[in-house]
Amino acid sequence: MNHTHYANLSLPDTLKPCIDFHGHLCPGLVYGYLVAVESLRLLGEDRSDDEELVAISENDACSVDALQVLLGTTAGKGNLTISNIGKNVYTVYSRQAAKGFRFSRRSTYAYTGDNPEVFLELEKKVSAGTATAAEKKQQKLMKTLDLLAKPVEEIFEITDAAIPEPAYAELAPSVACAVCGELTMQTKMIRQGSDLLCRPCAEGARRE
Fold this sequence. Notes:
Helices cover 37% and strands 17% of the residues. Helix 1 crosses helix 3 and helix 2 (27-43) packs parallel to helix 3 (63-71). It is an alpha+beta fold.
């Protein structure tokens, strides 16, 4: 599914590639979208071509996809770190500016849109497990549009990130594991005697 499925909605143009990448529109994606847009504004940066920006997400949810699309902080480039401790917290750091910002949610979501009675009824059904597929979709869409209408400061507490400059992505040669023969990044291997083993083989050897 791509953003054309939401053609009847007035959505920010910058959100559309996030929907295309993620596959659908949802509240989780919007959380990441809001963090990314506000980070670029605060840092005075554009999308990262290489590792100019670094993002640290404290969850592995839908929001991460918006960070990858808008910030250019991706798993493949090594400038995205997922520290999955289940928090709706994100840090975005600029190497050029030598500073970053931390976005954290400290209050639960409260609907403030135009149809509170409808949303409350849908929320009750979703929580009770009695909502139909159409009702779940409607509740999710109402929450998504409501989040987009809120000031980002109402959703996140934004503070200076008190962290050192993150390290660049690690580069190391690949070496054949002494047991399975598969090439493995040398710095990720475990030495056993004179041999270098990949982690699965090393852990298997310990159990035997």
